[in-house]
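Two quick folds needed for the group meeting slides. Do the first one here.
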Amino acid sequence: MQRRSTGWIGALTGISLAMLAVAQPGAAAAVTRSEYCSRLGLQLDGAIQTKADPGANAREIAEATALQDKANRFCAEHKQAQGIRTLANALKLLGVTPVDLNQ
């Protein structure tokens, strides 16, 4: 009987240690695709406002805004990967490097 209880205690200890290793304090949480859509959308909003100064290329701003609308639809339809790519393309069109949240 004692062998069985020792085995269970060992198994529970191993599981506990594994859980502690996974959830270490101070470790950055992974960014979800939905969050990435939101953050790139905010970055694009700022880039469009910055580029909207007099003398800016109105065609590029219009194209970036159209891409942003398309990306927002993708993100809302749970097609975040397509939305992220579209937002990144809109940012690149304006000459802005998209933020990399994985760094």
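Then this one, please, same format:
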Amino acid sequence: MIIILKLLETFKTVYETKSFSKASKILFVSQPTVSSQIMQLENDLNIKLFIRNGRQKILATPQADILYKRAIDLIDDWEDLRQEIRHDADKKISCDIGASHTFAIYLLPILLPKLYKKFPNIHFTIRMMNSMEVLESIEASNLDFGFIEKPLAASNIKRTSLCDDQLVLVDNGDPWLVREPSSGVYYYTKQYLAENNITEPKMEVKNNEMIVRLLKQNFGKSIISKRAAEGLDYQMLNYKYERKFYLMRSESHHFDDIDECINYTIKTCRGLF
């Protein structure tokens, strides 16, 4: 197809200039090359396109008149197609990512610059939400993929383990600062309270960073990620309080660029964290 278009472009230039020498100058090729390309086109079509009338002057045949009209359309259509493809290639692909609080605050800032550099054609949008909200948003096709800190499962959703996260207890006295029931850490907090028969006052705080800020002001006690406990006095908890971070994605929606981004993310997280 490209070769034919090249021949048609040469033909169009010769037809308009009525001269092989002028066409060669416009096309920046030698005159023998122009002659050879016209001859190739004539052989392919099995027709005569130009009649040589003297050394310089040439006349177009009726068949050349027909071809010229169609050649213009073909060349213009091809250029329009090229521009459309180039424009589409320059467009950024949207990728919506949801991340649970701990992952969003402590791991995503390390991961995201790598994704941005690796995939310059992808426009990333990051949303921080709890683990259940991430899962529900993926089910509703509102996210391309997400990160959670709770072993949730659903049909048509693929869950991939990324890395471990150790939970610790920071104790500055009452009240217990607990996340909402749909968050990842709530499951472990509830388990700890039940195991230790704790019925002390509780305050629900729907933001992990706010809990950390309160703890840093020596207010309350809470179970948080060891990653979030930097600068705080904390108590290590046993193996039952070592959780995992997971990547969640839909099994039914696949796009090459997003799939490549997901695969890179999994590999990178396992190497980094």
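Slide caption for protein two: DSSP finds nine helices and eleven strands in the chain.
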